Amino acid sequence: MSETDVGSVSDKIAQHKADGFLLATTTTVSTGLKFLLDGLNEQGVAETKVWDRHELEHLLLRDANIGLVKRFLPASYIAYQRLSSLPQALESLKVLVPPAVYKKIQSVIETYHVEDSWISGERIWPHDQASARTIDRALSLLLERSDPVQSAQELAYGEIEFDAFDATLKTLAALKPAQTAQLCRELVKARNGEGPSLFAFRFYAERYEPNNEEQIELAVELADEDLAELYADEIGVFIYEELTTAPEKYRAWDDLDPLSSHTTLEGAHSYDLSVRPSEDRSRIEFLASVEVSVELSYDKETSPTSMPFPGKVRGYIDPYGIYIDDFTVDTQAFYE
User: Fold this and answer.
1) How far is residue 222's CA from residue 193's CA, in Å, rounded to a whole number?
2) What is the pLDDT of residues 60-100, one digit of tens each?
3) Largest CB tally within 10 Å, which of 6, 110, 172, 217?
4) Strand, coil or helix: what is 151?
5) Do the beta carbons of residue 277 and residue 189 sit within 8 Å?
6) pTM, full prediction
């Protein structure tokens, strides 16, 4: 179902002076329509909710509602009975097909049926067929062939919407946590700097809580641009706090301290950050330009003055923390 099928949702809400909009459909909702409804919800225009065929199925097949299905949807109830008695149906197949075929059927069903839930691209993301097909290919590679590397390649570079990518990882993590952990690690190694690899790293770190050493070991697999985005804020805060707290630890202080009888480094703003793995891939190295603000004070009778100076900061991140190797500054402007 698309936006054209529904018409103007805003007009309908205004016409009926409603504070909510429920869309019930026996098909699925297009990505465009889903985006529209989500937008109205987020903007506070109205609370929106979609009952597509999967949600309707979920609601109707609850124990409290199964009587309604039996009475008003008898054909669907019969189909449900067949599926709900899947173990018995499988058992009956033993005498109908060769053992090798039975084992194959059983293996495939067990692969895609977990905790009364079926795993498929259509169920994970019914809003876009291309995304659903990509998910199905990735699922087959991961679950049937036990090939997380190729599954990651399919998800990282295949035709799939970002929200569908997100939904896939969340669904798999809930139903197949061990395989999803492998998949996330391989998605990071896929090095897609457009977003999937960095998202997979963050998802893995939040969901599986690896220790610092494991995080660094995995982070060095990211593309340099992803590393910069991942650590930029953390590095910037550290540079500011470290240089304003203990500037005397670094050789730049030998150039700054003599500028007045009482020199204070008040601020440090980092920019042009570059981040990359070390050659031995045991840590993450960074280089940043920095502008430091320095207060110069000469005596009690003269008001202090502030001057900015450009500099460079070089450092690294390892499992034990963030460190600065070197901090240099150019004070030539003071003498001009």
Assistant:
1) 8
2) 767 787 788 788 888 877 766 665 666 666 666 676 778 88
3) 172
4) helix
5) no
6) 0.74
Residue 120: the pLDDT is 92
236 or 1: whose pLDDT is higher? 236
Check residue 45 and report its DSSP letter: S
Burial label for 71, CB within 10 Å (0-12, 13-18, 19+), is: exposed
Would you state the structure tokens that stand for residue 95, as one six-digit string?
């005498």
User: What's the pLDDT score for residue 291?
Assistant: 97
Question: Partners of 327 in the beta sheet?
Answer: 313
* Tokens encoding 223: 């593309």
The answer to whether 331 and 309 are in contact (CB under 8 A) is yes
The angle formed by the CA atoms of residues 116, 119 and 124, to the nearest 5 degrees, is: 115
Distance, in Å, from the CA atom of 243 to the CA atom of 247, rounded to the nearest integer, reads 5
Q: CA-CA-CA-CA torsion for 217, 223, 227, 228, nearest 10 degrees?
A: 160
**At CA 236, angle to CA 231 and CA 242, rounded to 5?**
120
- The SS3 call for residue 160 is coil
What letter represents residue 122's amino acid? E
User: Which structure tokens are listed for 267?
Assistant: 């601020």
State the virtual CA torsion across 176, 182, 187, 190 in degrees, nearest 10: -150
Strand, coil or helix: 43 = coil
The token pair that represents 198 in the structure block: 């960095």
- Helix-helix angle 129-139:162-175, to 10 degrees: 40
Question: Residue 329: which of 273, 229, 247 has the closest Cα?
Answer: 247
* Predicted pLDDT at 272: 96
CA dihedral 161, 163, 168, 169 (to 10 degrees): 120
Type of residue at 40:
L
Give the number of other Cβ atoms within 10 Å of residue 169's Cβ: 21
Tokens matching residue 38: 């989500």
Q: pLDDT for 209-256, tens place per residue?
A: 999 999 999 999 999 999 999 999 999 999 999 999 999 999 999 999
Q: Which amino acid is at 30?
A: S
Q: Secondary structure of 276-330 in the HEC alphabet?
A: EECCCCCCEEEEEEEEEEEEEECCCCCCCEEEEEEEEEEEEEECCEEEEEEEEEC
Contact 254, 263 (CB under 8 A): no
